[in-house]
Amino acid sequence: MRVAFAGTPEFARQALDALIGAGHRIVCVLTQPDRPSGRGMKRVPSSVKQAAIEAGIPVLQPRSLRLDGKYPEDARDAEAALRDLAPDVMVVAAYGLILPRWVLDLPRHGCLNIHASLLPRWRGAAPIQRAIEAGDAVSGVTIMQMDAGLDTGDMLHRVERPLTADETGASLHDGLAADGARAIVDVLAWLAAGHAPVPVPQPEAGVCYADKLQKSESALDFSRSAGELARRVRAFDPFPGTTMPLPGMDQPVKVWAARALPATGVIGNGALAPGAIVAMGPDGIDVATADGVLRVTALQKPGGRRQPVAEFMRSYRG
């Protein structure tokens, strides 16, 4: 099939690589403009752009696809290119731009989105992290026929993935990226064979939204329960990470691993305020929360590297 692909980060690159490997003709790739990165703030191409260049695929990087938006010339150029290329379908994965109606209607089979949740749960920007943070037992990917709404289109295929007790944002990202790549290859194979999946409307029950991650969420709020905080530490690894203050440190330290311990009688009776240090040692830094104790087991000083708590404690002077 003639496929236009729209995506930006590593999650999308895995799907693009899989489609190339499956023998589809990728007529073009749309991806976000190069962004400044690193200490030198040099402009760096996205993972998807790098893959497209390696495969010799034409790349389009419009700043917007809205013909009546802030960058109408970018949108007009993209529209002309896509109409000339006449793709059978557009595959979209974590692209980062809103697709207006003209894009949705242009390919013969429309636009198919690889969404990293089991819709209708976790529509929106951060489904991977919000699923872990909420304590979901299962996640997955949904191949969706895109419409004008926010992740509201009919479902064509779903693949479930159980969440492990130590699941992090990074591990779930990698697992779902691989699942999504296999799923979109399957769906396009069915389309090419004339066996298109029956579209299933999303149910009204169970709809929830995965708000975009904010750096302001990084600071651990010990007025929450230890279980909630342990899940947030795992969910926000690697971005945006979580932080906490420590006595003797001018800046908060990053917390990369933690687990919830049951409340003790002292903490349960309110003798220790949330955020108070209960104990420090090579096994962990125990912090009182509103319900239970959070044992921190891996940290990072400002400008340093991740360290197990035993190694961190050898140089810590609190």
From TrEMBL:
Residues 212-317 form the Formyl transferase C-terminal domain. Its EC number is 2.1.2.9. (6S)-5,6,7,8-tetrahydrofolate binds at S117, L118, L119, P120. It is an enzyme of class 2 (transferase). GO terms for molecular function: methionyl-tRNA formyltransferase activity. Keywords: Protein biosynthesis, Transferase. The keyword Protein biosynthesis applies. PROSITE patterns: GART (PS00373). InterPro entries: Fmt, Formyl_trans_C, Formyl_transf_N, Formyl_transf_N_sf, Formyl_transferase-like_C_sf, GART_AS, Met-tRNA-FMT_C, Met-tRNA-FMT_N. Residues 1-188 form the Formyl transferase N-terminal domain. It catalyses: L-methionyl-tRNA(fMet) + (6R)-10-formyltetrahydrofolate = N-formyl-L-methionyl-tRNA(fMet) + (6S)-5,6,7,8-tetrahydrofolate + H(+). The keyword Transferase applies. Attaches a formyl group to the free amino group of methionyl-tRNA(fMet). The formyl group appears to play a dual role in the initiator identity of N-formylmethionyl-tRNA by promoting its recognition by IF2 and preventing the misappropriation of this tRNA by the elongation apparatus. Belongs to the Fmt family. This is Methionyl-tRNA formyltransferase.
